[in-house]
Amino acid sequence: MSAVWGAMARTRAVGLLRVAVLLQITVLMAVRPAGAQDEIVARGNQAYQEGDYRAAIEAYEAVQDGGFNGPGLEYNLGNAYFKAGELGRAILHWERTLELAPDDADAQANLELARSLTADVVEPMPTFWLTSALSWWLRAFPRAWLTTIVAIAWAGLGASLVVRLLTDGGAVRSVSAWSMAVAAALLVVFGSTLAAREVGLADPDRAIVMAEVVAVRSAPAQDENLTLFEIHEGTHVRLDQRTGEWAEVVLDDGKVGWVPLSSLEII
Q: Which of 153, 180, 198 finishes a domain?
């Protein structure tokens, strides 16, 4: 049954390629008059249909090198790399598709299929509700909204302080005290949210393993005695810290260790 499902998923993914390419062509034409980029995408599409997946990849990446990108192009690259037998890069580009278009059901289906084919079986750790709530909050507001709210809170706090200093008592002074408290609360809540966003707490770097097999070590050094375990092509990791040519990664099941940066590709 799983084999049948896998075949159906692959067929559906390939069948949607033309739609994705057409959408991407529309975006490119809206940015720049139809011409070289349009022809390159069409050439990539034709190569894919003819089974020349390397030529399709070269065409799509040439469009990216020209400064154009979008979920359709990333999706097509994922399809082409999958057909070319490069599972890690297929996963990478479908992940990037979902970064640009989180609700793309076809990219999600392809990604789930590809993950089922990786060598590593990583069971995600249960997420504590407070962690999920915090993650949601950090992503809930566009940056422009946060900066506007923080600016208004600063202005309100300053104005209320001036009013309080210039009045001796009465209702105006009471209102200014209340407005100061509200402005200060907004400043603390939304200011800390903005600060967390700016330092990258809301969106830590994620990466996909590109190498066929990578030794995960307890320290950033080429010493086999430090090897903790191995991970394989296509595995998803979160980057915690970096030093030189090494990165400390965290797997979805909570395992931690150091791997060479060259073995990863940032999503």
A: 198
d(C-alpha 156, C-alpha 199), whole Å: 26
211 and 229 in a single domain? The answer is yes
| pTM (global) more than 0.70 | no
Alpha-carbon distance of 143 to 58, in angstroms, equals: 35
- Output the six-digit token pair for 73: 């192009």
Q: Residue 111's CB: how many other CB atoms inside 10 A?
A: 20
Could you report the per-residue pLDDT of 104-128, keeping only the tens digit for each?
Answer: 999 999 999 999 999 998 887 776 6
Q: What are phi and psi of 32, to 5 degrees?
A: -145, 145
Q: Is residue 121 part of a domain?
A: no
Query: Is residue 120, in this structure, part of any structural domain at all?
Result: no
The answer to whether 56 and 26 are in contact (CB under 8 A) is no
Q: Which of 14, 42, 16 is nearest to 29 (CA)?
A: 42
CATH for 25: 1.25.40.10
**E strands of the chain, at which residues?**
206-209, 213-217, 227-232, 236-243, 246-251, 256-260, 264-266
Rg (CA), the chain: 25
